[in-house]
Amino acid sequence: MPGLFQRLLSPRRRRPRWDHQDPSVRAHAALQLDAGDHAALKTLSRDSDASVRQAALSRLSDPDTLLAWHHEAASPESLARLIDVIGGREQPALELSRRVALVASLNEQALLDALVEQGDNQTLRLTALARIEDEARLVHHASDNGIAAVRLAAAERVSSPAGLGTLVKQARRDKQVARLARERLARQRADAEQQAAASAERERLLEALEAHAHRPWEPLYEARLKHWVKAWEPLADGADQPQHQRFDIAVARCRQRIAEHEHHHRELERVQREKATAKATREGILEALEQALNTVSASEPLTTEAMEALASRWQLQSERWQSVSDDYGVSDAYAARHAELERRVQTLWQAWERLTQLAPELRQALDQEGDTTALLARLDWPQTLPPTALIADALRQSAAPIAASAAARDSSAPPTWDESALSAQLDQLEAELDSGRYRPAAQIQRQLRQQIDASPAALPAALEQRWKQLTARLAELRDWRGFVAAPKREELLTAIEALAEAREQSDAERHRRHQQLIREWRQLGDAAASRELAQRFRTASDALHTQLAAWESELANRERDNLELREALCEQLETLLDNPAEDADPDALRRIRDAAQEQWDQHWPVPKRRAAALGRRFARLRQRLQTLIDARAGDIASHKRELVAEAQRLAEQTGPAQQRADQAKQLQQRWRELGRAPKGVEQTLWRQFRSHCDTIFAARDALRGEQQARQQQRFDAMQALIDKLDAWQPTHAGERDVLDAALAEAQRLSPLPHSRRSEGMERRWQGIVHAREVTLERLELVAQARTWPDYRRWLEQAIAGTALDPEPPAALRQRLQQRQKQTPLAADDAEEVLQRCLVQLSLLAGEPIPEALEPLRLEVQVARLNDALGRPPTPPEELEQTLLRLFTITPLEASLWARYASSFDALLARLGSAGHEGVDTR
Question: What's the pTM?
Answer without folding.
Answer: 0.32
